[in-house]
Amino acid sequence: QVQLVQSGADMKKPGASVKVSCKSSGYTFTSYGVSWVRQAPGQGLEWMGWISGYNGKTNYAQTFQGRVTITADTSTSTVYMELRSLRSDDTAVYYCARDQGQYYDILTGSSHWGQGTPVTVDS
Amino acid sequence: QSVLTQPPSASGTPGQRVTISCSGSNSNIGSNTVNWYQQLPGTAPKLLIFSNNRRPSGVPDRFSGSKSGTSASLAISGLQSEDEAAYHCSAWDDSLNGLWVFGGGTKLTVL
């Protein structure tokens, strides 16, 4: 079955960087894209960006442009999200989520989600 | 502040029918289909409705979605206690480079 397993909780100081991993299994990694979505405490969902498992093409939300990098390692079926220059308002649970549709068929949403990685930013 | 607008809360009694609204604009709901996610407390979101009104396999037909213009709705009939969760609407937004936008989520309480 399809599984996305994320790295564990992390705590960082303001100004630092965090890198979260998302290891996929149970499907052909190169056929699907993966998004990163975060959820601050008590808040709604916020999309950060997306990477194609097929060719590594990325698309980032303007809010995070210049601060986030999403990469994919096809040899290990793992997607990474690095967020730099952390602030206290980056405290959130970070999720990876696989597209339901293959390749660039992204409009049908994310059908499989990781368990979430809590990231706390505090001095 | 979320791009899509949802009521923060909704409630109903077991067996009742409840609806949750989601309002957007021409660049998102007005141009693209709407997806809905259910998020049980302490868990990751789960795709509940996609392409406005389609259900992934395993989702009961008590859940239905609709869209008109720049608004969408999620309806839950025959409300059950296990439906108590947060519900998030989402759509692709064509502005800038394109991005997924979400509503702020609606917390559904089963009384």
Give an overview of the whole structure:
- The complex is a heterodimer of chains A (123) and B (111).
- In chain A, 0% of the residues lie in helices and 50% in strands.
- Chain A has strands at residues 3-6, 10-12, 18-25, 33-39, 45-52, 58-60, 68-73, 78-83, 92-99, 110-113, 117-121.
- In chain A, the strands form two sheets. In chain A, strands 2, 4, 5, 6, 9, 10 and 11 form a seven-stranded mixed β-sheet that branches. A four-stranded antiparallel β-sheet of chain A has the order 1-3-8-7, with no helix packed on it.
- In chain A, β5 (45-52) and β6 form a beta hairpin.
- The N and C termini of chain A lie far apart (40 Å).
- With 111 residues, chain B is an all-beta fold.
- In chain B, strands 1, 3, 4, 7, 8 and 9 form a six-stranded mixed β-sheet that branches. In chain B, strands 2-6-5 form a three-stranded antiparallel β-sheet, with no helix packed on it.
- The interface between A and B is medium-sized, with 25 and 25 residues.
